[in-house]
Each structure stands twice: as C-alpha cells, then as structure tokens.
Design brief:
Elements lengths: L1 E9 L7 E7 L5 E6 L1 H12 L8 H11 L3 E11 L2 E10 L2 E7 L1 H11 L3 E3 L1 H7 L3
Parallel strand pairs: 4-7
Antiparallel strand pairs: 1-2, 1-7, 2-3, 4-5, 5-6
Helix pairs in contact: 1-3, 2-3
Length: about 130
C-alpha cells in the first residue's frame, strides 16, 4: 500500500461531478477520483476549518466511531473495478482491527475530518496509470 495525501479539490458549482486528486506522499504519482458535491463540500469545509453548528454526516460517523471506543486508523482505496473505486475504513478498537466498506469519497472526507492517513493499493495505482 502507498501512503497518499489529498493534493487538490476541484469543485464545479454548475456540474454534478467534483474531483479530488490524491498524490503519493513520498513520491510523484497522482490520480483523480470523481466525487459528489456533498462529499466535496464536506472535504472543503474541513480543509478550510469551517465549523457547523450541528454535526453533518461525516462528523456524525466520526463521533459514533469515537463514542464506541474506536478510532479511524486509516482509509484504503483498495480496488478499481469496472471504472468504480472501492475503499475501506480501517477501524481500531482495543487493538482489534475492523474493515468497513466505504465509498472513497466518504472515506477520504472522514480521513480529512479525523486526520487519519490515506492509503491506496498498488494495484489501483497501476490500474489508473498513476505517474
């Protein structure tokens, strides 16, 4: 697995598709993922440090994970199948690890929200031709 970071967020207010770019943390490989407006807005709020008066979806999930005595250890973009990216939330609770299926956009929004690291499977980088 390769450690990545969010390098760019492109929000198009007139279209349905927003784009995030993940870049290799200690390298040059990067690739885009098309996401929805709500996930893009959540990521944008976190990047800018904007607080909301009530928890939004990703804040709610982060709170549930925390209140259950777990923490988000990482997110992994694990697969690219038929043009669709797949991801996993890796939760740690008392040393036990649990993986939860997630859309990459939600996983990345949650990672940005909590400061958890983002990883991408090497097979995904090869499939997208990241260079």
């Amino acid at each position: 697995m390769v450690r990545m970071e969010l390098s760019r967020l492109i929000i198009c207010e007139t279209g349905d598709e927003q784009v995030i770019y993940l870049k290799e943390k200690d390298g040059d490989r990067a690739f885009p993922i098309v996401i929805g407006i709500y996930e893009a807005a959540a990521i944008d709020r976190k990047i800018r440090g904007h607080k909301t008066p009530r928890p939004l979806t990703h804040d709610l999930l982060a709170g549930v994970i925390r209140d259950m005595g777990a923490h988000l250890a990482s997110v992994v973009v694990s697969e690219l199948r038929e043009g669709t990216f797949y991801a996993k939330l890796v939760l740690d609770r008392d040393g036990a690890s649990t993986e939860v299926d997630s859309r990459p956009s939600d996983a990345i929004a949650l990672a940005i929200s909590t400061g958890a690291p983002i990883f991408v499977d090497e097979s995904v980088l090869k499939a997208v031709g990241a260079n």
